[in-house]
């Protein structure tokens, strides 16, 4: 298998970051931070990149080795293996949450009479095929749709600028609340902090010392795209309505008034979300499958693919009864849990630095 290029890293994580936030999370962030959401996105994006940098510092010390294998030499196998197994379960659960959100969106908007299990099973089959094919296929999938996705999302604010209430723009810099700003920034940081999981992918990367440059470019790209769509939506709907919309980006697209040809652009967001969520879910499931395979000293991750896919589908179908129940996962407890998981590399790095030879007594034998 060929190495994953830095361009592919940039493209995948750009899609990875902005599509989910715009599609499913922006309303929750606005409900927390209101007009200061734009600042939360800037601060949270930087904090998330900082979490990824910690993972990079740990991974670059052993660039050719997998974290699942060498981590036991840092903290001991009795602590390391429970941690990596818990993270494998976390990866599956996160993939299941995304699958459930996609399932609810399709059923509520377009497939009203379709059983939920059918939507999940069909999409999960595609994900399983990608995961069995390997990490290279997942990154190439993101590369293949990158420019189409960027173009599709960038044109939306250009078509709705006439609907914007510019008199509301002054509130963007004179409505600040420190507790809300902090909570919103942590929410965004927990989403951007998912880039810290490069620790599990690092041996697959080419030109590894350029990884943080690629991630910085991806974070910057996603922040620009999110703000270019969020600010018009805020100035059209206002923070109260925007914070209570389930799919704000879809509603923004429906505001386009350019005649019959461009008036109904709903398929645009469907293409964007389907492909981008396919990439993100596939990546999380691959992380889970590959982590398990390495934990049990298997050279091939394929034996775990179908069983972990079935577990993901089971989680997605039974984790909650309604879309509102899924939204409760975004409360402070879940944000704190995400940040704790994303800071696990910091724990390993701290222990590794303490135990490294340069910190030992030079007279010790």
TrEMBL record:
It comes from Paenibacillus tyrfis. It is found in: Membrane. Its main location: membrane. Pfam families: Spore_permease. The chain crosses the membrane at residues 7-26, 32-58, 78-99, 105-130, 137-160, 180-202, 214-237, 268-292, 304-321, 333-351. The lineage of its organism: Bacteria, Bacillati, Bacillota, Bacilli, Bacillales. The keyword Transmembrane helix applies. One of its GO terms (biological process) is spore germination. Belongs to the amino acid-polyamine-organocation (APC) superfamily. Spore germination protein (SGP) (TC 2.A.3.9) family. This is Uncharacterized protein.
């Amino acid at each position: 298998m060929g190495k994953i290029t830095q361009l592919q890293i940039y493209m995948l994580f750009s899609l990875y970051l902005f599509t989910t936030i715009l599609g499913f999370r922006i309303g929750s962030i606005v409900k927390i931070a209101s007009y200061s959401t734009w600042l939360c996105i800037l601060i949270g994006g930087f904090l998330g990149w900082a979490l990824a940098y910690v993972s990079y510092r740990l991974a670059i010390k052993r660039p050719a080795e997998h974290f699942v294998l060498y981590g036991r030499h840092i903290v001991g196998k009795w602590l390391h293996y429970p941690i990596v197994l818990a993270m494998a379960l976390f990866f599956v659960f996160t993939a299941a949450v995304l699958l459930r959100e996609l399932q609810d969106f399709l059923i509520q908007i377009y497939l009203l009479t379709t059983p939920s299990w059918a939507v999940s099973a069909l999409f999960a089959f595609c994900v399983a095929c990608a995961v069995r094919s390997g990490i290279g296929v997942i990154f190439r999938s993101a590369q293949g749709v990158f420019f189409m996705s960027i173009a599709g999302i960038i044109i939306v604010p250009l078509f709705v600028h006439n609907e914007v209430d510019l008199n509301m723009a002054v509130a963007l810099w004179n409505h600040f609340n420190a507790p809300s700003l902090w909570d919103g920034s942590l929410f965004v940081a927990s989403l951007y902090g998912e880039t810290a999981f490069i620790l599990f992918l690092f041996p697959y990367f080419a030109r590894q010392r350029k990884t943080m440059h690629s991630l910085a470019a991806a974070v910057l790209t996603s922040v620009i795209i999110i703000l270019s769509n969020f600010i018009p939506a805020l100035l059209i709907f206002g923070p109260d309505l925007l914070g209570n919309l389930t799919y704000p980006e879809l509603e923004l697209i429906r505001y386009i008034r350019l005649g019959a040809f461009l008036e109904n652009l709903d398929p645009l967001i469907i293409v964007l979300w389907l492909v981008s969520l396919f990439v993100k879910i596939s990546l999380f499931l691959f992380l889970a499958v590959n982590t398990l395979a390495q934990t049990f000293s298997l050279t091939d991750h394929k034996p775990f693919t179908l069983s972990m896919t079935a577990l993901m589908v089971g989680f997605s179908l039974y984790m909650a009864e309604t879309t509102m129940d899924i939204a409760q996962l975004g409360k402070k407890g879940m944000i704190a849990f995400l940040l704790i998981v994303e800071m696990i590399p910091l724990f390993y790095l701290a222990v590794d630095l303490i135990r490294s030879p340069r910190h030992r007594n030079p007279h010790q034998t």
